[in-house]
Amino acid sequence: MVLTASSVLGTTPDPSNPLGVVGVSIPLQDVFVLTSTEKARVDTAAQSFNAIIEGLAAANELGYVDANAALAEVASTGHAFNGGVMTNAYVTGGAFSLRRSTLNAKRICFCANSIIDVINTTYNASIPKVDIGTYGTVTLHNN
């Protein structure tokens, strides 16, 4: 789904039919859902743009953060930090808010640390990293 689907999800287009809920009993229109072909095109375009950005950074001796690779680490193996391991498992993994599409404080810290690593390495800086373990996340309780 594309982000603009949030403008119609859960709406009831016919006030006389409260059971007619878009995304539940009424399917989303094609404009709000990417096909596998469309998703492949988006992925290809993103890879092309990222390659251009990385090339420009290298040509100008600038730092480059491969955020896609950094976030893929969280998805594939998890990321160990002081106090735990962050994964992309919904709710329990610690990387996403309950909205699923937005990052939570821990994942934002992880991204900041990726940027800090590149700055420190590229520019011989000594910016301290953020302690991911000091930031909260969604937790589950059985009470």
Give a quick set of tags describing it.
143 residues; 4% strand; mainly alpha
List the helices and strands and how they pair.
Blueprint (H helix, E strand, L loop, with lengths): L35 H24 L7 H10 L2 E3 L2 E3 L18 H19 L20
Antiparallel strand pairs: 1-2
Structure description:
By secondary structure, the protein is mainly alpha-helical. The chain has helices at residues 36-59, 67-76, 105-123, and strands spanning 79-81, 84-86. The protein has three helices and two strands, in the order ααββα. The protein has a domain at 65-143. Strands 1-2 form a two-stranded antiparallel sheet.
Largest sheet: 2 strands, antiparallel
Series of H and E elements: HHEEH
Beta content: under 5%
- CA-CA gap between termini: 34 Å
Identify the strand order in the major beta sheet.
Answer: 1-2
Shape: flat
What does the oligomeric state look like here? single chain
| Low-confidence spans | none
Q: How helical, in percent, are the residues?
A: 25-40%
- With helices defined by DSSP (H or I, 4 residues minimum), what is the helix count? 3
Rg for CA atoms: 20 Å
Structural class: mainly alpha
Number of strands: 2
Mean pLDDT: 87
